[in-house]
Write a structure and sequence with these properties.
Layout: E1 5-7, E2 12-13, H1 14-24, H2 29-36, H3 46-57
Antiparallel strand pairs: 1-2
Helix pairs in contact: 1-3
Amino acid sequence: MEDIEICHCNGIMKSEIVKAIKEKGLKTLEEVQDATEAGTVCGGCVDDIEEILKEVNG
């Protein structure tokens, strides 16, 4: 998996989001935002986060 920066505002990488989803069993955008702070500033990466949730959780 290529590691890319998903949340530019907070400098959060895809690997960090995937790890949080897997370790904490996150299911929703809100849970990912609470756990990682990704998508909490401008919201520009919200679609990307939802896509990662689908990838990880199927």
